[in-house]
Amino acid sequence: MRPERSRSAICRRLRRRLRRLHRDCEQRDPKGLYRRARRGEIADFTGITAPYEEPDAAELVVDTTRLSVEEGVDAILDYVERTFALTLTRGKG
């Protein structure tokens, strides 16, 4: 499998497993996308104009109301490393 396909598969799989906190996302929305979706300017916006079904048993929950951005990213990277047996290079910049 090509590296690009492997990464895409990992991202798709991870995306299915994450429980999203839409209220928090909407409150932190720096680009105003949720506001635009509510005004009808963006079609098929998940959780606003398109359905979102929360997983029954998420394997990973990143509660962004309790974690900093860095802690959330670390939790996701830890999960990816454990689940997909990857070693990720972490660093700033």
Assigned CATH superfamily: P-loop containing nucleotide triphosphate hydrolases
| Global outline | globular
Through-space gap between termini: 29 Å
> Mind summarizing the main beta sheet?
2 strands, parallel
Tell how many strands the DSSP assignment holds: 2
Secondary-structure class: mainly alpha
Looking at this protein, list some descriptive labels.
mainly alpha, Rossmann fold, 93 residues, two-stranded parallel sheet
Summarize this structure briefly:
The protein has 93 residues and is mostly helical.
Describe this entry's structure for a reader:
The chain has a single domain, classed as P-loop containing nucleotide triphosphate hydrolases (Rossmann fold, 3-Layer(aba) Sandwich), CATH 3.40.50.300. It has helices at residues 3-17, 22-27, 33-38, 69-84, and strands at residues 18-19, 60-61. The protein has 4 helices and 2 strands. Strands 1-2 form a two-stranded parallel sheet. It starts with a helix and ends in a 9-residue tail after the last helix. The model has no long low-confidence stretch (mean pLDDT 76). It is 46% helix and 4% strand. It is mainly alpha-helical and 93 residues long.
Give the secondary structure arrangement, pairings included:
Elements: H1 3-17, E1 18-19, H2 22-27, H3 33-38, E2 60-61, H4 69-84
Parallel strand pairs: 1-2
